[in-house]
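Posting for a labmate who doesn't have an account.
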Amino acid sequence: MSYGTLSLTLVFVLIPLLLSKTLHLQLEKDVLIATVRSIIQLLAVGYFLKFIFESDHLVYILFMVALMIGVATGNARKKGSKIKGITWKIALTLTAIEILVQSILLGFHIVPPTAQYIIPISGMAIGNSMVLSILFLNRFQAEVDAHRDQTELILTLGGTPRQAIHTQLTRAIKASMIPTIESQKTIGLVQLPGMMSGQIIAGADPVQAVQFQLLILFILLTTAAISSILLGFLSYPSLFNERMQLLKEKE
């Protein structure tokens, strides 16, 4: 695709702009900002990835993965501002996911140890973990706030913080995992995933594209489970003080 052809695709941006203007939605500025940012960011990443793929040096690969973890952590931490130390907890969760995924892929020789495979797969795994972390933190904090009396009652009766928060924690973990599980139930019937579609458009054999897509789906299922569970068990102790009392909201 040439840049001239790419410019024609801006018609897809004009449509929401016109609709927003016509219906007085006042989203024109947001649409324009999102469009400009996406163009600049993706083109910059594209040229940077081209450089990394051509050099295929471990230092550049680690730098790109660290950058993705850093940006994802910064984005997800906004949703867990009430939880002490949430930044390092999210960063640790994302790092653990990356290490686990790459250890399995490279350890079993499922994919070659090259930047062309490591970086895109890392991006999908980290990105999915970031979304799951945000979903978990939103739901977990809502559950804690809605059931403070129940939690404090269990603590008063001699329960441990883990026992007191168990129901809210499991509900949040389950709720954050449901979108990933449900989307996989209809994959291929309702939607063709991005990686599979991209490979097919690029001329790859559809069956080969399906095999790679299944690999990604299985990875995303693991990241969904581990992200929510690990972040949950790292986070809940911060909701209690040293006397095993539930911290007040203002704290």
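Reply:
Got it, the structure tokens are right above this. The chain is about 75% helix and 0% strand.
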